[in-house]
Write a structure and sequence with these properties.
This protein is an alpha/beta fold. The chain has one domain: 3-Layer(aba) Sandwich (Rossmann fold). It contains 10 helices and 10 strands. Strands 6-7-8-3-9-10 form a 6-stranded mixed beta sheet, sandwiched between helices. A 4-stranded antiparallel beta sheet has the order 2-1-4-5, with helices on one face. The relative contact order is 0.16.
Amino acid sequence: MTDSENIVVLTDIRLSRAGKTVLDGLNLTVPRNKVTAIIGPSGVGKTSLLELIGGRLKPDQGYLLLDGQSVPDLSRGDLFKLRRKLGMLFQGGALLSDLNVYENIAFPLREHARLPEPVLRQLILMKLDMVGLRGARQLMPAELSGGMTRRVALARAIIMDPAMVMYDEPFTGLDPISKAIIVKLIRELNHTLGMTSIVVTHDVAEAMQIADYVYMMGNGKVLASGTPAEMAGSQRDDVKQFMQGLPDGPVHFHYTADDYLADLFDGDSRQ
């Protein structure tokens, strides 16, 4: 697949934060108009990867292209323009607590578009209808369930008709019905609006349902990649352990310790 067919291209990306290596030679591409899932245990750099793509972080080394532009080399003004092509659904939704549902979704439009109020209203009601919450537009965030909060945040993420939406752990803390609704919405909106979607998650079942292609991260790199069927059939021990939720494998159940019997009968009074 050529770079023109990929909206995101990352090559040999290295990133350290607070003296700790987060990404160590990561290579990854995201095809246009598809849903790409990035899975892996917590703490392997998935969210940092989204921050790199969005220009919030700069890599220590490597190349990062978004829609043909080198993100780390953009001026602040050009980066601002590029970000207008992106939608973001944050963990927990990140709604503004003092604004109702309607005004939360209106916020990006009021900041960037300067549209007449009747046009703005039509756009907001259309996006709310897409996520099934047009009737909830006067509710405050404190009145919403977890699933409703994510759906409002999704409507806000797509209100500017972005070329790409990035989802950071969109299923965390949701009940099974709410998870199923978010899965359905991600797939349907990606197809209906002709977007590209990047879904960062550690929820394997949901990732397999929505993704066209899957990357599994670990140790700062891509450990494995493929279609959902290819990932499900992987014979790699680390992939099998994560995909199947096995307690034993390359990631050990026991933290490294001395021999149990020797430790138990050691006369040393220390803990």
